[in-house]
Amino acid sequence: MDFKLEKKDINSKARAGTITTAHGEIKTPIFMPVGTAGTVKGVHQHEIKDDIKAQIILGNTYHLYLRPKLDILKSAGGLHKFINWDKPILTDSGGYQVYSLSGRRKIKEEGATFSSHIDGSKHLFTPEYVMDIQRTIGADIIMAFDECTPYPCDYKYAKNSMHMTHRWLKRCCERFDSTEPLYGYDQTLFPIVQGSTYKDLRKQSAEKIASFEREGNAIGGLSVGEPDDEMYEMCEVVTNILPEDKPRYLMGVGTPINLLENIALGIDMFDCVMPTRNARNGMLFTSQGTINIKNKKWENDLSPIDPDGTSYVDSFYSKAYLRHLIISKEILGAQIATIHNLAFYLWLVTEAREQILAGTFYDWKAKMVKQLGQK
Ligand SMILES: CNc1nc2cc3c(cc2[nH]1)N=C(N)NC3
Predict the structure, then answer these.
(1) How buried is residue 374: exposed, middle or buried, by Cβ count under 10 Å (0-12/13-18/19+)?
(2) Distance CA 305, CA 293 (A)
(3) Measured in angstroms, how far is the CA atom of residue 325 from the centroid of ligand 1?
(4) Ligand 1 pocket test: which of 92, 219, 271 has the largest number of ligand atoms within 8 Å of its C-beta?
């Protein structure tokens, strides 16, 4: 994997770059649609590629391991082949899902034991096993197995958890660096900065993560309920330490405003379930702010969903029709709203990239943040 830093903003830490992977290029800043169990819920690959114009999607080790399971993925030649997606994929390691999804989980030095949220079966994820699983899934970018801290959590817990994550990272690197890719193309491993919302721990973790000199670095343990200003403060501290010549990935973030503020703090990659999950509930993100299409005021509004929208659904369908579909829980409603939201998120990061390249990002960001917050 390679990262070319193309332009740095002069009034902020924003930057534009290109990540090159075995499955193609990723222009940053980038938003990565979440495709947890091998599907961006309700959306076809051609829509993701041609209409939403996503460049990379996310899969999840925890989910894919439990279903469809590794033997099927291996027989298909990996996740790309199984879902018929030939662009880049990133898989999260399961650390967050074990902490947030599974039942009866127990964290020990060896790893995390948990019972499946699907059938209650018992499993043990060790750093080594999670590397092997992600080798089998075959994502271009894989994540280290980390321990996710709840929010809030006390200093002692955050400190001990951070050190465990660092010890697990060493084991992840040893296993990953001593195994080969299964499908004939390279994969890369990103470590994850932890430390909850304690500045000194975040500094310590960022320095430790940077010392592994991997091809990219992630920031975890945020967007777990902390106030936005704490998220920005932690991001500021960490991006001041993580190397400038490597991509920085802020996990699980965020709202459109979160994306712009963190791009200004030097973040290059984002993923979040908000645009897809909220779409299914009728929450539409637009450049004029968010609208809840279930609101009665859209009942007779036959105007296009979003006149400023870049997706085909924005001009093809009306607000009244989409409201009708969402209220009636019609499958097409979720599909249309998801395409709209993802197209908006990809437009936002693409526009941010253009503004950085033009040297006008800082003023544009200020205007957009105001506009996005108006509804
Ligand atoms: C929705 N918020 C969120 N914060 C996260 C934080 C992490 C993560 C996923 C997240 N999602 N995955 C990890 N492996 N570690 C940190």
Answers:
(1) exposed
(2) 9
(3) 32
(4) 92
Under DSSP, the state recorded for 109 is S
Q: Known catalytic residues?
A: 92, 271
ipTM: 0.97
Nearest partner of 232 among 261, 192, 270, 272, judged by Cα:
261
Ligand 1 pocket, residues with Cβ under 6 angstroms:
92-93, 95-96, 143, 146, 148, 192, 220-221, 223-224, 251-252
Ligand 1 atom closest to 144 (CA): 14
Q: What is the pLDDT along the chain (375 residues), one digit of tens a residue?
A: 999 999 999 999 999 999 999 999 999 999 999 999 999 999 999 999 999 999 999 999 999 999 999 999 999 999 999 999 999 999 999 989 988 877 789 999 999 999 999 999 999 999 999 999 999 999 999 999 999 999 999 999 999 999 999 999 999 999 999 999 999 999 999 999 999 999 999 999 999 999 999 999 999 999 999 999 999 999 999 999 999 999 999 999 999 999 999 999 999 999 999 999 999 999 999 999 999 999 999 999 999 999 999 999 999 999 999 999 999 999 999 999 999 999 999 999 999 999 999 999 999 999 999 999 987
